[in-house]
Design brief:
Elements: H1 2-11, H2 22-31, E1 39-44, H3 49-60, E2 66-69, E3 81-83, E4 86-87, H4 90-110, H5 116-130, E5 135-139, E6 156-159, H6 167-170, H7 174-181, E7 191-193, H8 198-210, E8 215-217, H9 218-221, E9 222-230, E10 233-240, E11 244-249, H10 254-268, H11 277-286, E12 294-298, E13 301-305, H12 310-324, E14 329-332, H13 340-347, E15 353-356, H14 368-375, E16 381-384, H15 388-396, E17 401-405, H16 408-417
Parallel strand pairs: 1-5, 1-6, 2-5, 6-7, 7-8, 13-17, 14-15, 14-17, 15-16
Antiparallel strand pairs: 2-3, 3-4, 9-10, 10-11, 12-13
Helix pairs in contact: 1-4, 2-4, 2-5, 3-10, 3-11, 7-8, 12-13
């Protein structure tokens, strides 16, 4: 049964992305405004928003009934919606689609029917409400101001790092993009910002002031001491104005240190007063965020990372060099709407050997032959293996260190191929 329901849901992708909240508001009203039934943390940004939402979820669930909503998924749709320690179950998804299918279709007579992401978002909110969630960490899908998730009124709005992406929808300048991200700031609701770039800070500060929202700059509110990043994990002491935390996590990357600090600062300014320093430390220790500088195989060593834009590539290169200290064989597949030239210009700092492949996203994948023709000259050795699994198997036989990256769809495929864990925590 679920296949039919998911086919219907994925069929709504024909509507594309709609940066318009009118249908989302009407759809939510018809479902009973489930977004009003739980407290939330709303996380926007170009990079780091999924990780930050996951850290918040993992800390909150130490004391509260907590949900997590992120996108896209790596292997299976259910990954997008988590409550407690479980993914949303197939039966709930099927029942929701069956119950509201007519509502979805009827809305087309008013204006248009809800999109795939709008329907998925309301599915998540309804699930959290039905599960009696006390909190949910909610990741923005695209932008912020007109994103489907922006019908919530959170306890805290959080904006992570901002960079150039989706210029056709969000604008071509950091100021324009920051303005769209700042659309999640609600009147009188505090906002935590992790980005210190002058144009971003100026924009967010101006909008926060206009809405009477207190602005907290995470880097100014926290200090990182005794930082150590190795293949085994990341350790540091985080000192805030309110407390001190000894952080240990298997998650790798300087950028994740920033995301952890942002999550902690946001929680300190929330109403989640039952949380202790030990809860924060335990939540971070248990946190996992798949496909971010993640080692999925040890011999040969395979690292996957979902970086797909230049700022994320910079962070990946910095961490990879620091942790692994060798040149990997790159396996790269990208979507056609990404800035491949700028991305690969950064990535080539890691290696001069690359295999171009396809992320197996039928309508959006960038042709690997075209990628090799346009960008293969950046590398000393480049070749094309169109099928992603064949490309991966080829790489396994050619190098002792492999990095698979360029698209979440590609790394998700390889993650699934290796039967890797996709839950955002590890309790062991």
């Amino acid at each position: 049964m679920l296949k039919n329901e998911l086919d219907f849901l994925y069929g709504l992708m024909r509507e594309g992305v709609k940066l318009d909240l009118s249908i989302m508001g009407l759809f939510s009203e018809l479902v009973g405004h489930p977004e009003l039934e739980f407290n939330s943390f709303h996380v926007a940004g170009t990079n780091g928003k999924g990780s930050t939402a996951s850290f918040i979820y993992n800390i909150l669930r130490q004391k509260y009934r907590t949900g997590l909503y992120t996108s896209p998924h790596l292997v299976k749709f259910n990954e997008r919606i988590i409550f407690g320690l479980d993914q949303i179950d197939d039966e709930y998804i099927g029942n929701f689609i069956s119950k509201y299918r007519k509502t979805i279709l009827d809305l087309a007579g008013t204006n248009r029917n809800p999109t795939f992401f709008e329907t998925t978002t309301l599915l998540a909110f309804k699930y959290f409400a039905d599960m009696k969630a006390e909190y949910a960490a909610v990741e923005v899908g695209l932008g912020g101001r007109l994103d489907s998730t922006n019908i919530i009124t959170p306890e805290i709005s959080i904006i992570t790092q901002i960079g150039y992406e989706h210029a056709d929808k969000l604008g071509c300048s950091l100021t324009a993009i920051a303005t769209e991200k700042a659309g999640i700031i609600k009147k009188g609701i505090p906002v935590v910002l992790s980005d210190e770039k002058p144009e971003v800070l100026k924009t967010i500060k101006s909008i926060a002031e206009a809405r009477g929202s207190e602005l907290f700059l995470a880097p100014a509110e926290s200090k990182v001491k005794k930082l150590s990043i190795t293949e085994e994990g990341t350790r540091f002491t985080l000192v805030t104005d309110n407390d001190k935390y000894e952080i240990e996590t298997t998650i790798l990357g300087d950028f994740q240190v920033r995301n952890i600090a942002t999550a902690v600062v946001a929680l300190e300014h929330s109403n989640a007063e039952s949380l202790t320093a030990k809860d924060v430390e335990k939540g971070i220790h248990e946190s996992r965020w798949p496909a971010r500088v993640e080692v999925i195989k040890s011999s040969p060593k395979v690292v996957i990372d979902s970086a797909h834009n230049p700022p994320a590539a910079f962070s990946l290169v910095k961490t990879f060099r620091k942790v692994f200290r060798k040149k990997p064989l790159l396996v790269v597949g990208m979507l056609s709407d990404k800035d491949a030239y700028s991305y690969l210009s950064v990535l080539k700092q890691l290696s001069d050997k690359i295999v171009f492949t396809s992320p197996r996203e039928e309508h959006r994948a960038m042709d690997p032959e075209k990628m090799n023709r346009l960008y293969g000259g950046m590398f000393r050795n480049s070749l094309v293996v169109k099928d992603p699994v064949e490309a991966y198997e080829y790489a396994l036989g050619k190098s002792g260190l492999i990095l698979v990256t360029g698209s979440m769809y590609l790394v998700g495929l390889i993650k699934g191929y290796e039967n890797g864990e996709v839950m955002p925590y590890d309790l062991n």
